[in-house]
Amino acid sequence: MGPTNTDRAPGAVSLYSALAVRGFRRYATYRAATAAGAFTNSVFGVIIAYTYIALWEARPDLGGYGVAQALTFAWIAQALLAPTGMFGGFIIDDLSERVRTGAAAIDLHRPVSLLGLRLAEDLGRAAYHLLARGLPPTIVGALLFDLAWPDRITTWVAALLSIALAVVVGFGLRFLLGLLAYWIIDLYGPAWVLVVMQLFFSGMMLPLVVFPDWLRRIADVLPFRCLIQIPIDVFLSDDTGTAVLPLLGVQLLWISVLLGAGSALTRFAVRKVVIQGG
Amino acid sequence: MAEAVRGFAIIAGAWMRAAMTYRTSFVLGTVVQFVITFMDFAAIIIMFGHIEAFGGFSISEIALLYAISGFGLGAADLLVGNAEALGRRIRDGSFDQMLVRPVPALVQVAADHFALRRLGRIAQSSAVLAWAMSAAPIDWTVARVVVLVAAMASGSVIFSAIFVMGGAFQVFAGDAAEVANAFTYGGNTLTQYPLTIYPTELVKGVTFIVPLAFVNWYPGLYILGIDDPFGLPDWLRFASPVAALVFVAAAAAIWRTAVRRYRSTGS
Fold this sequence. Notes:
The structure holds two protein chains of two kinds.
Chain A: H1 12-28, H2 31-58, H3 67-81, H4 90-101, H5 104-107, H6 114-144, H7 153-179, H8 188-201, H9 213-221, H10 229-235, H11 237-240, H12 244-272
Helix pairs in contact in A: 1-6, 2-3, 2-6, 3-6, 4-7, 6-7, 7-10, 7-12, 10-12
Chain B: H1 2-19, H2 23-47, H3 59-80, H4 86-91, H5 94-100, H6 105-111, H7 119-135, H8 142-172, H9 178-183, H10 185-191, H11 200-208, H12 213-224, H13 240-261
Helix pairs in contact in B: 1-6, 2-3, 2-7, 3-7, 3-8, 3-12, 8-12, 8-13, 12-13
């Protein structure tokens, strides 16, 4: 893993950026898997695009979107699926595997915080997935359909920022769930509950603007809309006139809640948990 | 054949006993499978909150298409779905062991990690089917029941063939397992909706290249008594079993080629 015999303690910034670079490279190794994933994202993009065309042609302006905005939603959502880590895996599998084998005991006593280490790695992974799994479906979507792009450079910047925040929210959710491994051994069930909640309440299955009021109200108080609906709302804000800053505020709020809970729970795990294996 | 079934039963039984070690997790997993499959039907219900018809079809008619497709994928996933994880067996070398055991390799691959929780999708599709059968305007005759049963069996075979092809593909491109998802889960999503919403080229593609339209669309048109919106010949409605047989023969040929070309991991 990291540098083993350095004479001086590495600065925090260089340490975490080194971890991020490793996270990037770790996933960049699997080129065929990445190409396969981008292909699958694109196939789903085509299917979902035609369902949205049928829906929005039957009901123009549904939820404040036109056909172009709905299609943009379909493709950007596919592009964000891998970077936001919505299908779980990644951290969850790692953490629970390390608890099963006993390696988790070492993690809890490293000089870097478990949360910081995992976050840095996950940001590296997400950067890679944004490029390799996010760009291809976006390009395919832009070639096949008329999409709605931001008009102003500031909207592009805000959209990229919102995507970065979405990645951190996704990390926070998966990290918290992964920590459950210190108490529950088989995380299959809880992990899928998280996947279901994320897919449904993020807007991945269907934009939240289409949800009936009562369901929308539930979605609005949950963190999951930070993953898909909010970044895409920011992306489309030039067309829809949505205020961007409150949306970014919601993401920041959830990040502080999730990461705060994550770091508190990690400290709790250090004190309370009896590690197995070893 | 009897030997293959026996081999499957022995391996699947072992995996079921293993799963029962984590009983709570098994129950939760089955419930989650049921819920996750209900989620895409919930999306359809939400869409129908805004519209009367989707691609010219009512919600009960779409439910029929949805249920037949979901049943086919569910049955295929239960019986051979694990073929999608063959890449892992190839990477760690344990596929080599499978090839020397006295049970056909395909049977071992299919029964590997057999998981009863996959019944969740079959249960959900069956529930939707029961509702669709009573709610959709269908003039039930013996012929329509036969076509429905044949469609469910053919759909299972077609999706199974895709899983096997996906497994065979991993012999050549180990990491690219996810390509198969585009045709299994992607094919399921595609066929949940009436094909009228897609362009003609796509409909021809899923008729003549990857026969997904035979899973539910052509038999569905017959059961619902609807003329083909694309003007394709009427006999296609009864052709699902033939399409399934041709496709599974192709999958078998591809699988045999893959096993013959397999060169182990080399380490």
